[in-house]
């Protein structure tokens, strides 16, 4: 069990503390408030205190007795195949699956359930996990949980009123002594010799009793979360998948599919880039300073300039040919002298 939780990234020590300390704290608090109610109230209020205590114990027992755990049966066996109502028909979009597989429990569970890592079971219509009772609140035990919370709130209120009545006999709570009702202040007063141990105990019960009353009252008026179901999770995941698929299809429509390298045509030479309507005319020359590149307007170039450029190019080409032929003749003469032995 602890090895599985360690693999899931859950600290085993944290889980152990959450599963043991809150139930133990609630038992100690209920016992202490009950003792304070018995010892500080007149005898005529004892039946009312007994009613609160009996109801708290009975509702707690019923809460654990009617746990909303999904039991093991032939229907949720992992090898059981759940078919649709129509074996030949097609599944409708509005038709939901009745069962889904829980990887933690290793069995098929209803879609209205949700797995609890503390109870290590799947809970039907899980509302939340109550750490103070040590179990989950589901479809079967929710009414007992609400009854337990109601009587716990009334019992805590009755006990705090009894403690306030007792402390008002020894201190004027509407003066500076009223700050002694806070537990840190009362502990500091004890070290200065202005308080006693029994008073610290009563003040601690008063503070925790007020906190229990406020917390249980809040739980009574808290709206249940109807989205904590496996069906909601599956519908949410399906909605996200549909949105993702729709987004991908829109992107494919916007951008055409890219072809592979085999389908691509051979690369073509890039055409020359024309930056402007001006054309640069270069005239070859031995000296770079003889001619300079100038920007010409094609509309202003006359036939005379074209003929001059053409003639200059022909002269330059002719001089290159003469130079080449002279060098070639020199090389032939040199090779001939070497062959004859006169080199």
TrEMBL record:
Residues 232-247 have a biased composition (Basic and acidic residues). Keywords: Acyltransferase, Membrane, Transferase, Transmembrane, Transmembrane helix. Residues 284-299 have a biased composition (Acidic residues). Residues 229-299 are annotated as: Disordered. GO terms for cellular component: endoplasmic reticulum; Golgi apparatus; membrane. This is Palmitoyltransferase. The chain crosses the membrane at residues 12-38, 144-164, 176-194, 200-221.
């Amino acid at each position: 069990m602890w090895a599985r939780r360690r693999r899931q990234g859950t600290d085993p020590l944290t889980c152990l503390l959450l599963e043991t300390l809150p139930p133990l704290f609630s038992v100690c608090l209920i016992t202490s408030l009950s003792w304070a109610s018995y010892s500080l109230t007149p005898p005529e209020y004892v039946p009312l205190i007994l009613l609160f205590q009996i109801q708290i114990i009975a509702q707690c027992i019923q809460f654990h007795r009617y746990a909303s755990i999904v039991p093991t049966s032939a229907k949720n066996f992992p090898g059981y195949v759940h078919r649709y109502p129509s074996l030949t028909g097609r599944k409708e979009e509005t038709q939901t699956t009745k069962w889904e597989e829980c990887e933690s429990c290793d069995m098929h569970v209803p879609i209205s359930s949700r797995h609890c890592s503390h109870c290590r079971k799947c809970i039907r219509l899980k509302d939340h996990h109550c750490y103070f009772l040590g179990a989950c609140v589901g479809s079967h035990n929710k009414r007992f949980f609400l009854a337990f919370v109601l009587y716990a709130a009334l019992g805590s209120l009755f006990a705090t009123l009894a403690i306030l009545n007792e402390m008002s006999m020894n201190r004027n709570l509407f003066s500076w002594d009223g700050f002694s009702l806070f537990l840190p202040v009362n502990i500091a007063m004890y070290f200065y010799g202005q308080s006693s141990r029994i008073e610290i105990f009563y003040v601690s019960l008063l503070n925790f009793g007020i906190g229990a009353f406020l917390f249980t009252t809040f739980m009574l008026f808290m709206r249940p979360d109807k989205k904590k179901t496996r069906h909601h999770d599956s519908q949410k995941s399906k909605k996200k998948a549909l949105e993702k698929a729709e987004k991908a299809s829109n992107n494919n429509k916007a951008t055409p599919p890219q072809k592979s390298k085999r389908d691509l045509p051979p690369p073509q030479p890039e055409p020359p880039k024309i930056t402007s309507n001006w054309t640069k005319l270069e005239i070859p020359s031995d000296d770079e300073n003889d001619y300079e590149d100038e920007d010409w307007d094609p509309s202003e170039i006359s036939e005379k300039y074209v003929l001059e450029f053409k003639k200059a190019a022909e002269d330059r080409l002719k001089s290159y040919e003469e130079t080449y032929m002279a060098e070639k003749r020199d090389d032939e003469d040199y090779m001939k002298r070497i062959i004859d032995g006169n080199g």
